[in-house]
Amino acid sequence: MARTRTTKKLAQRIDLNYFKRTTALKRAKFFLSVGVPALALVWIGWHGLAKDPRVYSSGRMSEAHAVLEAECAACHVQTAGAFSAAASETACLSCHDGPMHHASSKSSPACATCHQEHRGRVNMIAARNQSCSECHGDLRASGGAGRFEKHIYSLQEGHPEFAAVRAGVSDPGAIKMNHAIHLKMIRRGPNGPNVQLECGNCHRPAGVDADVTYGDAKYRAAAVSYKESDELLEEDTQTLRPPNASSGRELMTPVKFANACAGCHLLTFDERFDEGVPHDKPEVVHAFLVKKFSEYIAAHPGELQEAREPERDLTGKPLQPVARVYRRDEWVSARIRDAEELLWRKTCKQCHAMASAAGQNNLPVVAPARTTIKWMPHAKFDHDGHRGFSCVSCHEKALNSTQASDVLLPGIASCKGCHAPGPDHAESRCFECHTYHDWAKRKEVRPTFTLPALRTGGQ
Predict the structure, then answer these.
(1) d(CA 154, CA 132)
(2) Tell me, what's the pLDDT at 321?
(3) How many CB atoms are closer than 10 A to CB 259?
(4) CA atoms within 13 A on the CB side of 304
(5) Quick one: average pLDDT of 434-445?
(6) pTM, whole model, 2 decimals?
(7) Comparison of pLDDT for 57 and 327, the residue scoring more
(8) Whether the Cβ atoms of residue 179 and residue 171 lie closer than 8 Å to each other
(9) pLDDT at 145
(10) Is 217 helix (H, G, I), strand (E, B) or coil?
(11) H or E segment to which residue 7 belongs
């Protein structure tokens, strides 16, 4: 006879007290739900008794603030036995005085809006593009027309061409220079060998020793009557200054005749002398000629009698006497006149803009060099950070430039080739080239903190 299986009989086989019995799984669940939190509380309490606040920290601090990593109270105000979640603005300003970007700004963002901590050993200056585009994405001038682009979101989106290389802009410098000739094989001096110049022979940062391959030791040692600052264009006083001190390798210094030119461009003035005139103002050059010719004729009085050279006779001009006897002052004046004719009309004029002769001794006026030191006054740039690249890879215009008025800076397209988003490119966020705070208006702060290592005796 077959066994009958009913629901009632099956239900009688179920142990209704199964939930009261302990099992390995239940014990594991109990330990995880009660034991682990208990251990966590003990661990937190232990660190609290040891006054080690790292256990409460949101993460490691930036490299600049690493020394304060165990000093939460330095930035977070402690109230009612707990630290505030946000850092105090006063705490930031007690160490850093960051003047505003524009005094006319309607609002002043809190420090932590752009500079966020507890993200590890990162650069605190590396603000997000969004922080800048909040204003520059829709830049409205508070008084009249604005000086800058009104809609810039990033280097790739909305950033205009650099002002220095826009159409119609020319170099205001007065020194005549043909880069195309100097970057080809060129003769070194009137009788020298052919040489190949490099950009670094003339252009060097201030923090780097000058390349004197084509310089002259005598001119380098000589003092000059003009000031180098008189040859430079004034910088824009409204430019925001970066917070860091200059290393001397960011920008190129003006090219000096003594370092880069004197070895090829000789300032010789008369076959009687092996040396050239000083590279100085016309007044100084004139005084030098007077002294040199006066000393020479005093040592060689026989040259006061000068024989006519037939090969120098000019057709249609009256013939000079076969021989002429000069007084000493006449001879000196004649030689100075010949030397200055050569200098003013050829040698000096080859590089300098010479105005008509005027004033005492009828000397010409040499136009100031008007050299531009910083072409992009509203941006930061560091040549030292680009030292691995050849000069012409950015300044390729120099290879074909024949006019001194040419601006040889690279355009924004050259920068975008390397500076772009993504791990395979160089940094391209706004902070890389621009600064926000006007550090020229910074105020010195009074130090208030003691280094933890010194206070606790740690290493």
Answers:
(1) 9
(2) 64
(3) 22
(4) 13
(5) 84
(6) 0.76
(7) 327
(8) no
(9) 63
(10) helix
(11) helix 7-11
